[in-house]
Each structure stands twice: as structure tokens, then as C-alpha cells.
Amino acid sequence: MKFQIIWSESAAGELKKLDRTVAKRIYKKVSQLCENPYHFDVTNFDIYSFNPA
Length: 53
Description:
Layout: H1 9-17, H2 20-35
């Protein structure tokens, strides 16, 4: 199943502020998540259980 990432204006703006090589690495990782969101194990992160009310 393929997903779509929708960048907010603020996220895109913050990405543009970064060094180009760093921004490319972030963009590439996020793009990989679109292809397979379960590839990266995020169970050890606190945000994994985050539930906005």
C-alpha cells in the first residue's frame, strides 16, 4: 500500500532553511516512508504512542 505525504507550508519552510544535503536526506527518508511506512521500527519512541486528543 502506498501513502502520500502532504508537506505543510511550515514544514517545507523549515526544510528549506536546512543545509541542502541534510534536506535531501530528510526528503529521501520521508519518501521511503510513503512506499513502506512499516519498514522503520518506531516502537521504541515515545511519539509512537502519541494520541492527539
